[in-house]
Amino acid sequence: MSAPEPARRVDLVIVLHGVGARGSDLAPIARAWGRRLPGVRVVAPDAPFAHDDDPGRRQWYSIAGVTAESRAGRVAAAAAAFDAVIDAEIARAGTEVSRTVLAGFSQGGTMALDALRRGRDFAGLLAMATRLAAPPGRRLDGLAARVVHGEADAVIAIDAAERTRKALATAGARVDLVRIPGGAHALDLATAKAGLAFLHAVAGGS
Which of 4, 15, 53, 81 could tie 44 with a disulfide, CB 3.0–4.6 Å? Predict the structure, then answer.
């Protein structure tokens, strides 16, 4: 992807984990990205809710009994709690939404996509091994976005990535899709490298 030159400063990247994980699980990636993005704070917060089956783990919304038809409702119900987590990180960094990039994996990516759909004006979006709960409800003209997905993902099939890319492009985003050959449902090295290349283009760095 030939990302645009940053039209506005990027101060913060928020990395969002999947269901059944914690922010600390993504801390090594956040630190590695942060070292390559001078002047940009990279954080990986916990989701607001305890996991259904393990209170020591976290989730953005419950997947117990979730279906393709009910997912959008679950995401909508979790939106306020998601926004509270994001807004706390933005306040802690002393910045604003328009200078923040969301980088979401799996369920975290679904929530990030929904935040854009709802009208939050983030500086960019990195969507990894994830899917849309509902199509964008507004124009996303000029938004820098990248979708990264493993071709062997057995949790969320690669077809979901193409649907996400198409929906974002239709809404006006500058988006590409990076397919990871043989990639499973994981934030692996190839996904992390593709993500860093996107963040470097959007936010600058080494």
Answer: 15
Reduce the secondary structure of 85-128 to three states and give it as a string. HHHHHHHHHCCCHHHEEEEEECHHHHHHHHHHHCCCCCCEEEEE
- Pairing mode, strands 58-59 and 100-105: unpaired
Any idea how long the chain is?
Answer: 206
Host H or E run for residue 162: helix 158-170
**Could you tell me the two tokens for 142?**
């000029």
Rounded CA-CA distance 175/2 in Å is 9
The answer to whether the beta carbons of residues 183 and 152 sit under 8 Å apart is yes
Contacts of 112 (CB under 8 A, 6+ apart): 16, 102, 103, 104, 125, 127, 130
pLDDT along the chain (206 residues), means of 10: 54 97 97 95 98 96 94 97 98 96 98 95 97 93 96 97 97 97 97 97 76
What pLDDT was estimated at residue 9? Answer: 81
Report which DSSP code applies to 154. Answer: S
CB-based contact 13:202 (threshold 8 Å): no
The predicted structure's pLDDT at residue 2 = 46
What global pTM score does this model have? 0.94
Q: Can you read off the two tokens belonging to residue 114?
A: 């929904």
Query: Is there a contact between 144 and 164 (Cβ–Cβ < 8 Å)?
Result: no
